[in-house]
Structures are given as C-alpha cells and as structure tokens.
Design brief:
It is a single chain. The protein is α/β, with parallel strands linked by helices. It has 2 domains: 224 residues, P-loop containing nucleotide triphosphate hydrolases (Rossmann fold), CATH 3.40.50; 232 residues, Nucleotidyltransferase, domain 5 (2-Layer Sandwich). The chain contains 21 helices and 25 strands.
Length: 551
C-alpha cells in the first residue's frame, strides 16, 4: 500500500459519507450498478448512526434507508476488526436482499481498501479481518442470533411487522450490553406494537436498563416529502392510487391511520375535533371528548359527564374482569333516548364491591336498565345484583338444557316474571359478539352515538382486526370497548322493540307463528302486570301462552 493509498484508507475509515460518495456502488433493478449518491436526509441519518448508539427510525418506504443501513454495516465490517453484525428482517427474501446489498458494497471497493471475503453465502459473510455479517428472518434463526455472545451492531428491518419483537428484544439485550449499537427501522403498522412503543418512548426521552447500562433510543422520522423527487402533486397522485390508509402506512409516518382498526381513526378523531351543540366552554370550544365533570368513587374510576336527569331513562352495560388482576371491570351509563354516554367506570375491583357499585349507580340513574355480561365472574355479579332485589335487568333467552343445573336452580323466575328459559345477564356468544361490534362500529362511524371518554377512545385506537378477529392488541385492554358495544347493541335491539306501544304489539301478535326453537333475545325483568288476557296466543290443544314478556 502506497502512502497515498494509506491516507485514503484512513480517510475512508474515519468518514463513511466520503467513502460512500467516492467508492460506494448500489445495484439498481433497471439501471444496474451505479454510484451511491446520498441525499441530504441520508447524510443526516448516517451522522445520527455515528453519533448515537441506539436509533429508532420511523420512515416512509422507498427512501433508501434499508440500503443505507446495509452500506453502514459494510463500512463497519470492512474497516474494523472482529465486528459481529446481525441484520433481522421479516422475510427470508428480505434478509437475503440486504446481504446482497452488503456484498455489492464490499465487492466494488478498490483492492487497497478491501478486506477480502473468506465466507460468502446467501445470508452470511465473513471477512479476513474477522468481521462477520449475518442476516436472518423472523421465525428462522432470529432468536438464536439475538442470543449470540456479543453484537457490535444489530439492525432490525420493518420492526413494526415482527410479531415476536418483544421476545426478540428481550433476547437481544444481553448481547448489546457489552457496548453494541442498534438500528431499528420501520414504516408504521398501527399503534400498540413494540416498534410504536419504542418510538413514542424515544420521543419522550424514556430510558431503558440493559444489563448495567442505561440506554435510550434516538428517534428519527423520515416522511415521504424528504425525497427531492416527491412533491405535493406526487403525494396527491399516490394517495389517490393506493388510498388514504395505505398512504398513511407507506409514506406518511402516521401510526394511528396505518393500523387495521375496527373503528376508523378518522371516526374517532371526529369526536376529539368537533364541538358539541351544548353551551360552549370558556374558551368557546367544547369537544365531544373531554374531561368529566367529576371523577368519583374510592379509586376515582367513575367518571361522570352528566348527572342523572329524572325525566330520562338510562342503561348500564357492564363487563366484569376475570378476577386474575390482569384486566379491568368496566361499565358505561347511556342515556337511552339521546343515545349518549353520560358516565363510565374502569378499575380493578373485587366482584362484591363492583356489584354494589353497579347497583348504586343504576339506582341513582333512575333505576337504569342493567346489562351485565354473564360469563365467568360476570355470573357472580349478576346474581349479587339480583340478591339486592333489583329487577330492571337484561335476561337472555337460552336453552336451559345447556346450563349447569346448579345455576339453573338459582333463578327466581316467578319473582321477576320472565320466561322460564331465560338466564340473567347478557351472553356474549359467537353470534352476538360480531353483532355487538358491528353495531358499535357503525354508530361511531356515523357519529350517531355521543361519546365523551378519552379512555374509551384510547382503547378503540388499539382495538384492531387480527387474523380477521376484532380484539385488543397484545398488552392492551378492550373492557370499555366490549361493554360499550354490548350496551349499544341492547339499546338498538331489545330496548328499541320494548319502546313500541302496546297497541302495535297486540297487532303483531295476531300474525305470529310461535315455535319452541331456542334463540337469544333480551327481555325486561321488571314487568308485574298480571292481566295477560289480552296478550295470549293459542298454541293448540286448547292451550294458551302469555306473550306479555314481549312488551
């Protein structure tokens, strides 16, 4: 090596930007091998790599950031001895492609700058200076790689789309504790996943303990308009071509709109951005979603936006925790006529205390119609409320042969004047659950329902379709969501039917064909009028059956 070559080697080792601009080559799918001309935002990003050990990048697609990371890995491996570099991707093809990019950089380096390849296969490269670059896809060797003795650099590509990212990160932490660097990059994929949490925490300056070291990610945001070839017209045409949700995910770095939410983000934002028709606040703006008038009960979990109006009827829809301390009990108080949320509870409370809270709240709200999901611990809550002689409750029509005898024997049918094939509470079944969620989605999308709670909004933002099933993201809750959907469904089915006047009901009864096929339907349990003569139906053999329960 000549003296000039030595100077050039030292310069390239110290200055990767100079190295890439002078000697870097990339393979374009149409143009073939071409110089690696860095854009300004790519240079800025590379300087962040050099300055910060942990970087999390929220990026638009097709900005060349994956290529930049591959180039950075190639530079580090080529100019520094014994570096252990691992690139994790979502798919095997993606991992292989990243290794190909590294290989192009290394092969095109002039001989006096090059550390020769000793091992070269599809997903791993080993140089004569002892440095190694490996790539893996999730589901293959990713976890094993993360548990290697020590990593100099870990690159995680499209982290928001890696389902096991939490587990992989836990495994990777000991390998980085010795001083390794980490680059995490991805376009957004909704909220609540590991990547979203890391980026949000990075923006907030949150630190994390890794071994004996305290680390914090450096946030880097790279939206589509940083690219010099993309202007407003490009954005307009691209949005028109792929749709707003896809554009938010692919280009706009928008966590909220990029997810597969059950209720669209736009529908939820409407409640936060639009004013009500009520008397405005002091600043002249009173949005639907706002702080409650009062936070009460022992844990301040009962939020009240409107106090009881004794001219109105209310409904309480309640979800009960499993009792393992990991989830919450929650209920909503709904103004039936105005179709408005007036109060809400969310908290971790034992079933006895929760039963009393529901009962007392219902009494305050004009003996509100109580709807409690009767699964698991919910059955206990239902029975406790019945023991308090509360009668205005939802009952589910079921085939009693499917109910455990000990439970069936507890039911006091004669007291509450309900059909003998009814059980107290709401049964969330494979049929009723989709119906509840569909009703909620429609009424929130069309803004027919008046929603006030930011806690409910927060749960709705993490309530997504996963493999076609609506559910909360991992480590998030949907207690407020499910209790709300149940209340909205009952209000628009059972209570809607019950609101019909008796004359209409009598006319309907004359044309009904009655059979004994089991079905699910809700009925009031508070009817006490024993004059059934006008509401009977001839079922044959001289027998008549009362149909008063329908009204």
């Amino acid at each position: 090596m000549t003296e000039e070559e030595l100077k050039e080697y030292i310069r390239c080792r110290k200055d990767p930007i100079y190295f890439f601009k002078t000697y870097g080559r990339v393979r374009h799918p149409k143009k073939g091998l071409m110089p690696f001309d860095l854009y300004d935002f790519q240079e800025d990003t590379l300087n962040e790599f050099l300055d910060k050990s942990y970087n999390v990048i929220l990026k638009a697609r097709q900005l060349g950031i994956s290529t930049l990371c591959a180039a950075y890995a190639a530079w580090m491996a080529n100019f520094f001895k014994d570096k252990e570099i691992f690139i994790l991707a979502t798919k095997r093809d993606t991992a292989t492609n990243l290794v190909d990019k590294v290989r192009v950089f290394l092969e095109e380096v002039p001989p006096f700058l090059k550390s020769n390849l000793l091992v070269d296969n599809r997903q791993s490269i080993e140089l004569e200076n002892g440095s190694k670059i490996k790539a893996g896809a999730t589901g293959s060797n990713s976890k094993d790689a993360a548990r290697s003795e020590a990593l100099s650099l870990l690159i995680i590509d499209e982290a928001a789309f890696i389902k096991a990212m939490d587990t992989i990160w836990v495994a990777a932490q000991p390998t980085l504790a010795t001083g390794g660097d980490c680059i995490v990059l991805s376009s957004p994929n909704g909220i609540g996943n590991w990547f979203h949490k890391q980026y949000i925490e990075a923006e907030a300056g949150t630190t994390e303990k890794v071994g004996n070291a305290t680390i914090s990610f450096n946030p880097i945001k790279l939206p589509w308009n940083l690219h010099p070839d993309r202007d407003a017209e490009w954005g307009r045409l691209e949005k028109r071509k792929i749709g707003e949700q896809a554009f938010a995910q692919e280009h706009d770095c928008d966590f909220l709109q990029s997810g597969n939410n059950v209720v669209s983000v736009k529908a939820l934002q409407w409640y936060e951005e639009h004013p009500t028709e009520e008397e405005p606040a002091d600043d002249g703006f009173r949005p639907f979603v706002r702080e409650p008038e009062e936070k009460t009960w022992v844990d301040k979990g009962l939020w009240i936006w409107k106090y009881p109006d004794y001219t109105k009827e209310y409904l309480i829809s309640a979800d009960v925790s499993r009792g393992d301390g990991k989830d919450y009990s929650a209920f909503h108080v709904i103004d039936i006529e105005n179709y408005e949320q007036v109060a809400e509870y969310k908290g971790k409370v034992n079933t006895d205390a929760y039963s009393h809270l529901i009962h007392n709240t219902a009494v305050q709200y004009n003996n509100a119609y109580i709807v409690v999901e009767n699964a698991s611990m919910g059955h206990h809550v239902v029975m406790k409320i019945l023991e308090m002689e509360y009668k205005n409750m939802y009952w589910t029509i079921k085939d009693l042969t499917k109910i455990h005898e000990s439970n069936a024997n507890q039911l006091q049918y004669d007291i509450y004047n309900v059909p003998k094939n009814a059980v107290p509470g709401f049964t969330m079944s494979m049929k009723s659950r989709p119906a509840c969620i569909a009703r909620m989605e429609e009424d929130l999308r069309t803004h027919d329902f008046t929603l006030h709670s930011k806690r409910t909004i927060a749960e709705l933002e993490t309530f997504v379709f996963h493999n076609g099933k609506p559910e909360a993201l991992s480590s998030y809750n949907d207690d407020l969501v499910m209790s709300l959907s149940m209340g909205m469904y009952v209000r628009n089915t059972t209570l809607k039917f019950n609101s019909q006047n008796e004359e209409v009901t009598k006319e309907m009864l004359s044309g009904l064909n009655f059979n004994n096929t089991p079905f699910e339907y809700g009925v009031h349990g508070s009817q006490n009028n024993n004059n059934d003569s006008e509401f009977t139906f001839d079922v044959g053999n001289g027998q008549k059956e009362s149909m008063r329960w329908l009204i």
